[in-house]
């Protein structure tokens, strides 16, 4: 199988490329630059990858002709336009950007501050949260956001089983700097980031409506959640520390059952009662590790999830979507070596 | 004025020593080692301080004879015993350890897992949260804990003014490794700490009852709060991210008024609506910077406070207590240069 | 093929285990603990690996019976004794520790401050610097040290081709903390290591005689080199910055030719004139990247090599030795994804 | 005494401002922005300083009228032009930039790639390496570069006493990111700098000719030295690791005598035989700590010096120059608290 990849130069794009090269069901990967007019050697932009490939000029017809599917790993706002011919042709796409994640065009305009995709295209798009939906049969898969993945996976068992007061949900999410990408900015200038914590987009992060859209699928009454993001002085990883009141009468047993039933057969999710994961234990892997505990004094449940933002939070989940789409083995291409220490 | 210092070798102890040496009302500082039998040169244990002083053997009578007051900066559990002669003699003490912070002996035993001080001594002790109480006239001042300081200062205006549902309080506190002191441990081994986040003492941190004791002084109905601590891959600083539901009808104006009224004349506290502090902006100083915002959608108030755990969270507040105790200028000895960048 | 691994719990041991599990010519890996009397689940000591294996008690006969070869990844001083039955039986061993690296027993005693292996065993041992020797036919392979690998690979083309004044060699080597292993120590306590540089073992590092032994094979006149080691505030990687005077008349062309001829067909070495590698570009891989430049003003040649100390500096080179020993593909099991970013 | 400061917004500029505010001989500090047309509040650009001051528009006549002297802490190339009226008026200036450091206009053009100051102005400028020259009587003081300070102080005793083969000098210098200033760049983007080492300006750093100019004052035969710079994943500090061959017959005693005689009465320099300083032990202070050792096997002398690049390497030495210029106490304004831990 030949696959296309538009956007190899970003952090998650290059990780995705390396995963695809090792994927047992992929024969070759063709690279494209979405704003590129002439071919460029990959070596010249990403020498660290030590690959002889070329990044080809962008041409949608060409992409569809030479590949059985294509990944888009570009900035928000780009695929709104670029994806149209693929959507029209029902050509298989996995889109790692945010353009097609939200259900409502208004929400997209409000949170992304960009023109939204057409309603018909939005309807065609499938939100690929692999642990709860299947991309089998989908042609256009919108791969979830990194914060959204970590947060939804932490809260899902409690929301699905209606164990909590959903008006009480508080998420204190933290991310390393790779989530901010390659663009230079003051907040990611080493002298500023190092030995520091910086909050950003408080109450305004575009993953909030994405999280709420999904939670509402399980419980219509879930309101907008309290969600903050803090930039960490480290490169990779997201930790979502979630807090929520258990409903009256809910016991530790109920909470544990919810997590066990929800995740016992999920290859890439490990949920443990009373043991909170460290961030590092998932780096370099596609795992989402979750610790949870009902505090009998406050009757709050603490749920802490950790993921590698470039893997389970981006390229790794994209591979899971790819596996679902084409009915490959669910963990194909994802037997990764953890970064230890 | 001559002051004694028991425990210069710890991280906050050495900072306290440097502050005392520069304090305009201090003539000399005598150092003592609480388990020391013979004098030892400071140079031999802390060459970085470049000071010719000796650490003298411990003798309570000697300390009282040669000093007008004494600071204890030792591990929890030590002053329970050591402080007795000073308490009996009403000799001025500022104690940076936790032994005399809690109001109840039972609580101390439960949270510290150590034998508690006698009731009469506990009564003699004054909890020196300088922004809300005065140590003037006190002889035994128990200096607040680092997490407790950051958290109480963040929540005080809302609790005092009864603006929030106190059963909803959630604190996600983060600390650098200096808070864990000099003792070697797996969680502070560089290869383990670096590029990592580690939760510890979830629901069991000994600063929880200290925080609640103080909040109850303002509102008897405050229950045990939800409080977690996360170890950061950086050396200095604490950030306490606090979340709480505003009571029905409470407006942004009410919240702002509470912070302005509470802190407008506090030299070392800067509280700002809608602007969240970075951790680094207080490092090297005695400031506590606070950002707060009522989220109109969730009706949660986010309050984020930052302090240097060794200064406002330990040695700096101890100097403030010292200034109050002896009626020196409130900011004497605390005009510090921030660590920039 | 079944292989044994003694010492999975150390940093390089667990990396080696992960590499072996993915190696195309390895059927199963049996784990042994060198001081272990009863079996222990790997999960209990290394939960991050998420592997169901057991670590078996140590028994040399058992190891030889159930495996076709064995890796030792234990502390220095252990295989001097443990390896004897394997050496006597000519059973294939790859030893990642330092015990059998030096040619002289006296040198071992002097630099390692331990009893040396017997002369006859030393003679049986092959120094497995894979880029210059082949382990084909060897039974006991001593895998090179991390600093030694980085330094020898940097200097080899110049020493082999007699282009430099070997009395002028200066090596300023730097390493992350993973090289110091899991043992707790003051110098690897996070608050001490972070934002710091610390020299250690200046002129006394045990890799010095190992480097010199090898260089002397190419040029008998090489004297003891000037070599210092500095501990970096990062986890993985070694950079060896080497300086040496070019002999009179040596040109940039001569230097370049030496590197090109020496390394042009070496899969895991990239040497480039005038472009100095960053440390990060090899992390997660088995590559050794080298930059070199003749300074026409000082007539010094600067050579900078970087490796991942746990891969090319330990487990990765061990796999290369394994491949040579059993005539597998030279790069079998080493197609690794770089840690980016 | 009133002093002016042009360029408070840079990293060393803000440190210098804080030092001046605490200096016992300074009454007030007036701030100027060299490209500024209207006044601007300091708070708006540097809120962390918590100072109410204004940055005034630039006007050389105004500066000379309202101050007894002025500091320039601006980018290289700016004072070449700006300083002229001050030089013409013999008005006291301390210039922290590189424009007037080199003796030769040609060297300046070659290394800085900018138009050089006029010959007559260069002659008027005094190179303010405070440990070896005195700025008493000087009107225009050029404050040394950070790398130059660390390197010259390490080598001075050996060069002055003619103990070494000066053709063998190798300097492997390392710096934190604050030396690169506030400008955003790829190499100081957190995801790139973190867990990395990056060489830069190999053989081309503009501090090389500055070092050589000074060494030649002590020994005319000193040639261009071998000097490389490596960017560290930390914010503050420089370590210069220097290597040089001792002349034949030179003993450990000779080397020690040279350091003792040169530095025994220097307040801010601590040189110790056989004990190598850590970087952190000088951070936050004006100290230069030096360790040195003659290796009897290689006959190389290793000299390692560490400074805080913003203090002894910039603002701290500028204060020392200020003290010399106006005959204040040599250590006035420099009793700083080390950053510990």
Average residue-wise pLDDT of chain A: 97
Distance from N terminus to C terminus of chain A (CA atoms, Å) equals 35 Å
Shape of chain A, please? globular
Largest interface: A-B, 47 and 47 residues
Described by strand count, sense and barrel closure, the largest sheet of chain A is: 8 strands, mixed
- As laid out across the biggest beta sheet of chain A, the strand order is 3-4-2-1-5-6-8-7
Task: Detail the poorly predicted runs of chain A.
Answer: none
Q: Number of DSSP strands of chain A?
A: 15
- Assembly state: homotetramer
Helix content of chain A: 25-40%
CATH architecture of the largest domain in chain A: 2-Layer Sandwich
CATH topology of the largest domain in chain A: Dihydrodipicolinate Reductase, domain 2
* Radius of gyration of chain A, taken over Cα atoms and rounded to an integer in Å: 20 Å
Assign the structural class of chain A, choosing from mainly alpha, mainly beta, alpha/beta, alpha+beta, or little secondary structure.
alpha/beta
The number of helical segments of chain A is: 12
| Overall domain count of chain A | 2
CATH superfamily of the largest domain in chain A: Dihydrodipicolinate Reductase, domain 2
Q: Beta-sheet strand percentage of chain A? A: 15-25%
Family (chains A, B, C, D): Belongs to the NAGSA dehydrogenase family. Type 1 subfamily.
Protein name (chains A, B, C, D): N-acetyl-gamma-glutamyl-phosphate reductase
Active site (chains A, B, C, D): 146
Main location (chains A, B, C, D): cytoplasm
């Amino acid at each position: 199988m030949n696959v296309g990849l538009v956007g190899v130069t970003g952090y998650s794009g290059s990780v995705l490329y390396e995963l695809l090269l090792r994927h047992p069901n992929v024969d070759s990967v063709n690279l494209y630059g979405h704003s590129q007019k002439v071919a460029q050697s990959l070596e010249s932009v990403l020498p660290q990858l030590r690959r002889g490939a070329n990044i080809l000029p962008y041409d949608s017809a060409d992409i569809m002709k030479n590949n059985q599917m294509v990944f888009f790993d570009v900035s928000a706002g780009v695929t709104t336009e670029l994806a149209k011919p693929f959507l029209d042709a029902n050509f298989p796409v996995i889109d790692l950007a945010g353009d097609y994640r939200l259900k409502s065009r208004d929400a997209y305009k409000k949170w992304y501050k960009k023109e939204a995709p057409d309603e018909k295209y939005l309807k065609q798009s499938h939100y690929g949260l692999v642990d709860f939906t299947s991309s089998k049969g989908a042609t256009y898969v919108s791969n979830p956001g990194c914060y959204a993945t970590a947060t939804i996976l932490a809260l899902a068992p409690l929301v699905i089983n209606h164990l909590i007061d959903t008006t009480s949900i508080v998420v204190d999410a933290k991310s390393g700097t790779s989530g901010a990408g390659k663009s230079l900015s003051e907040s990611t200038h080493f002298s500023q980031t190092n030995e520091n914590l910086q909050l950003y987009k408080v109450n305004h992060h575009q993953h909030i409506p994405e999280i709420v859209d999904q939670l509402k699928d399980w419980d219509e009454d879930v309101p907008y959640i309290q969600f903050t993001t803090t930039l960490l002085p480290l490169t990779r990883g997201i930790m979502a520390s979630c807090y929520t009141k258990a409903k009256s009468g809910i016991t530790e047993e109920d909470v544990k059952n919810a997590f066990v039933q929800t995740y016992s057969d999920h290859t890439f999710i490990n949920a443990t009662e009373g043991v909170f994961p460290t961030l590092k234990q998932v780096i370099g892997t596609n795992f989402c590790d979750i610790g949870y505990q009902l505090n009998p004094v406050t009757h709050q449940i603490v749920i802490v999830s950790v993921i590698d933002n470039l893997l389970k939070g981006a390229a790794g989940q994209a591979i899971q979507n790819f596996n679902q789409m084409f009915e490959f083995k669910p963990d194909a291409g994802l037997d990764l070596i953890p970064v230890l220490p």
